[in-house]
Amino acid sequence: MLQKREDRTIAFQLISFVFAFMLIVFLASILVTRNMYHNIMLDNQLDNMRHLAHERIYLIDGILFRIEGFARIAKSAMTDYGLSEEDRESFLRELLMENPQIHSICIADSVQQGKQPRIMFTVRHRFSERTISGTDYQYQDWFQIPYITEKPYWTEPWVDTEGKGELVVSYSIPIFESGKRTGLLRFDIELSYLQEMISGTGFFKIGSSFLVSASGTLVAHRDMDLVMNQTLFSLSQEYRGSGLERLGHAMVSGEQGHIHLTGDSPFARAWVYYQPLQSNRWSVGVAIEEDYLLKEVYAILMIQTVASILIFLIVIIIIYARVLSVSRPLKRLALAADRIGSGDFNVQIPESDNSQEIATLSQSFIAMQASLKDYIRNLRITTEEKNQIRSDVMFASEIQTKLIPKNSEHPFGIKALRAYGILEPAGDIGGDLYDYFMIDEDHFCFVIADVLGKGIVAAMAMTMASTLLPSIAPFYKNSNELLSRLNSFLCRNNIESNFVTALLGIIDLKTGTLQYTNCGHVPLYVRKIDRSFVKYGETHATALGVFDNLKIGYDEIQLNMGDEVILFTDGITEAMSAEDEFLGTSGLEDILRKLPTPNPEVTANSILKSVHQFARGSAHKDDITLLVIDYKHPDM
């Protein structure tokens, strides 16, 4: 391997490398510090803007909620207390005179009978009233929208030509009598009243406030030429790329947050905080120019930058002076480290007393050399042990696979039966079991079981169960007796994973009678030749291996020609999707409804494929076992 020639001294190279490294570190430090100060100051100022917006919202919402309250009181007085028309108008007149924030009140009751609306307002503290002639008012927003929707409604600013001829904002509330809509009440606020609240200084002395309606129209702003003449969207079209369109969509949508605007718009180079009103769909914004917002940041960053440069220069001088005295012993240590890195762990580590640091470094290299020797030795031993364990696990998996019966079209040459099983462990080995065997020439026995837990211990319990059952089956004619014997065996041996659910059945090949026992296991299904199915979910006892004197029952099912018996473990029903939802029995039954004509192999593989599709992307995994048997009566 070619090596690059070193024409410079190690001291010079080390100084160069340290200089470059320190330069990068200090530059990164300056940039990070600048960004940190920028964010801190920005957060503080945005917090002040948020408080200012809250103050404006508190004032405006207070007025709007107060108007809504007046409207509800007035509606209740007109509909709930049986007041005469004269008493109603007297009440509204008194409400108007005593609350100066109410600009005017419009009564539009009994409009279906042709009664004209009336507007009540004050002029120089004197009460005045007008009648709205014609029917054009019915097409205006203040009447049409709440009248059709039958819900209260805040309007956009509009000119009340029938009243005092000023810009107002109206709150309309429908009136119902005897469950029928008869008209509505309208309470008006003068727009200038809300504008004064927005333009007022308040407690906070930063930023300028503005108010935007539900359509994005600037209702209040320090630039009066924009008020009622521009929307945030029209300004966005005029000043492209300024961010005003995003601000408009956010405020109209009732969102809360802040945004940095650029460009040459009226909000140029400014930060804007916005928050919606609670009473209607309007939104309050607070804008502050970026230069004013960050002027203190710039001053602090300038001081920090100068200080960082001075510190950097001082550190470089100190490093340069110190490196000259340690370059040689470091070179020797570097050469020794290179040999250790190439695999020579017996190299002699040079020691030096030029300085405490270099002496400590030499001792650290010596300790590292010894540790590496021990580590390599222990790693070799650990690897050998791990390979041996892995080999044992694979051997156990192979044994478990050989214990389950091999799939064939007609097991044991029985023409009256077809069977197909699938065992898919969650790991190399699992705790599920299925098996089938002949008790005698007329009785076919099958079993499916699930032991608590996974791994080698669970697999050992399953191995003993699969070995025990065929050996004792000829001595017991009933399914419950077989499982009672298995339960006693598990309790007596006290295996760590002896909590076993099992479902065992015996088919009389002459009569087609299926006798089965379910001990804490999931249900079995019998699927008919017409693709309908019956669920048998009753259990005859709890799980095996817990109670020694467990009483176990059984049931019988008469199988018909072409009936398909479907058995499975809870790895099917407890399969979990990527959204952490279980398949469940209802999900399994949905799969069964979509299966093709009964055939054990097709049925088992179709169910497994559907379960895998459901659980795609899920980290959860459990043992999955399926056994499908179909029965054909030999006399049919």
Structure description:
The chain has 13 helices and 22 strands. The model is unreliable at 201-205 (pLDDT under 50). It is 44% helix and 22% strand. The protein starts with 9 loop residues before the first helix and ends in a 5-residue tail after the last strand. Strands 1, 2, 3, 4, 5, 6 and 7 form a seven-stranded antiparallel beta sheet that branches. Strands 9-8-12-11-10 form a five-stranded antiparallel beta sheet, sandwiched between helices. With 636 residues, it is α+β, with helices and mostly antiparallel strands. The longest helix is centred in the first third of the chain and has 70 residues, at 10-79. Among the domains are: 197-292, Beta-Lactamase, CATH 3.30.450.20; 351-387; 404-631, PPM-type phosphatase domain (Phosphatase 2c, domain 1, 4-Layer Sandwich). Helix 1 runs antiparallel to helix 2 (85-98), helix 7 packs across helix 8 and helix 8 packs parallel to helix 9 (455-472).
